[in-house]
Structures are given as C-alpha cells and as structure tokens.
Amino acid sequence: MADILHRVGIQTASIEKVYQALTTRDGLAGWWTTNTSGEGDQTGNIIAFRFGAGGFDMRVTELREPAYVRWEVSDGPEEWIGTSISFELRQEDDFIILLFKHMNWQEPVEFMHHCSTKWAVFLMSLKSLIETGKGSPDPDDVKIDNWN
Amino acid sequence: MADILHRVGIQTASIEKVYQALTTRDGLAGWWTTNTSGEGDQTGNIIAFRFGAGGFDMRVTELREPAYVRWEVSDGPEEWIGTSISFELRQEDDFIILLFKHMNWQEPVEFMHHCSTKWAVFLMSLKSLIETGKGSPDPDDVKIDNWN
C-alpha cells in the first residue's frame, strides 16, 4: 500500500470557507473540475467529477465540520478503486493548514506518480481560489505532462 | 518506510538538456535553489543546496547519462537523513518524462506532506526552466504554506 501526501497553507482566517470549498458543488468546481455534480455536505452522497473523457465518483464517508472530509472512490480508473481521500484542516499562524492524503494505492505505479504531482497542482488551485477568488480547475488546469 | 513520487513531462527533444539541469551547478541553481555549490556530474561528489537558514548536502551515488541520477542525503534535517532521491528520464511522444522519487522516509510525518507538495512545485520549476529558459528557484520559488 502507498499513499500520496500533501500540505498547503491557505492565507485566510476562515476555516469554514475552506471547508465549503471541499463540500459544496460550487466550491469543488472552483478548483478541481468545472464538471462537478452533486453536493459533498452529507455522508453517503456521491459526487461525480469529470475530466474530458474520464473521471471519478466519490462517496462521502466522513465529515467533521469544519475540520475533516473523507471520500471513498466508488468509480474511476482501476488504480483508484479501493483508495480513499482525506482533507484535514486546522488553523496555524495566519493560515489554514490543509493536510491531504490519497491513501491505499495497491502499487506505486507510474500513474500514481502522475496523480501525486497533479494533486499538488490542484491543491495550489484551491489555495488560489480561497486567497484570490480564482482557482484553475479543469479544463483550465496547469498541465504537468503528456497525460495532462 | 514511505516515498514521495512525482511525474512531470518536459516539452523538449533534448534528454541531455534535462540531464544537465540535474547534474551541473548552473542547471540545479536554475530550478531548485540559486544557492547551490558543487557539481553533480561525478559519483562521490557532494552538492550543497542552501535555502535561507537551512539546506541539504547530497552525495551523488549513481549516474547513467542521460537517463538516471541518484543522490543520498548526507546532511540536512533529521527526517531527510537516510533518504535517497532519484530522477529517471526517458523520451515519450514530444516529452522527456521525468519520474521522481524521494525514498525511504522513516515515517509519513507532516514535514513529508510539505516536502511532497514542495517537490512538485520545484519540478514544475525545472519544467519551466527547460521549456521557457526561466525556472523559479529559491528564493523566488512558489510558496505553498507557512513553512514556505
């Protein structure tokens, strides 16, 4: 098993604002992909994220407002099936610190390397969304390689 | 043990140009930190990278020009001691694909989350250096959180 880990600090006093960006359709569409359906504010909900041809369905499995969000991948590329994603928030100095985990990859395949870098880029998009009002969600996301 | 993994694709036909950016002082200073001393083109060499107060010393342990570079951390923060870093290059489509690994962290501590995101940002700086002639090395690097 292998995990992708990231840490970003968002310059805002409002942890609630970051939590909203992780649990509402409009929030998620503002930093990950504009093609987002479903709300993430109730456990059991499914959120559908689409990127060009493919995408991911996430089941919301845990919420502790405003500090913790956890999803399980219910549909998507085979390497993602059985993996979970969590976002942990807390205040520190003038920042909301976000600890991100994409857990339980079966193998550290090349696609995992790609997803690790791509998550960093999307978390920087979330940071920018909160700090400046403008993120870079798909299809206007920062491209990192030939897989996009 | 835990590993940081990343994948970037650099739009250039010259794998040699990417290899130079990983093995020469000027190349490394162009994307990671301007305060770099030493050359990385011989195994056994030490390269010293400095960032503000702290930094890392790397021993070059393996070179296979132009496709592979491996370093061992010989001095730096305690969490980095005993870890290794590798860069693997190959041509694919119109890209040089770079697979990056920072291996053998004892524990997936919070500092590892930070370093994972920060490596992504620096690898995007390397991509930019090759593609546009301009990277964003420290001290003009992209800040990600309250640890910088």
Walk me through this protein's architecture.
By secondary structure, the first copy, chain A, is an alpha+beta fold. Chain A has a single domain (2-132), classed as Alpha-D-Glucose-1,6-Bisphosphate, Chain A, domain 4 (2-Layer Sandwich). Chain A is 25% helix and 39% strand. Chain A is built from three helices and seven strands. A seven-stranded antiparallel beta sheet of chain A has the order 1-7-6-5-4-3-2. Chain A is globular and about 40 Å long. Chains A and B meet through strand 1, strand 7 and helix 3 of A and strand 1, strand 7 and helix 3 of B.
Please write the string of helix (H) and strand (E) elements of chain A.
Answer: EHHEEEEEEH
CATH topology of chain A: Alpha-D-Glucose-1,6-Bisphosphate, Chain A, domain 4
Overall mean pLDDT of chain A stands at 97
Tally of individual domains of chain A: 1
Terminal CA distance of chain A: 25 Å
Radius of gyration of chain A: 14 Å
Domain Activator of Hsp90 ATPase homologue 1/2-like C-terminal (chains A, B): 13-131
Organism (chains A, B): Dyadobacter helix
Protein name (chains A, B): Activator of Hsp90 ATPase homologue 1/2-like C-terminal domain-containing protein
Pfam families (chains A, B): AHSA1
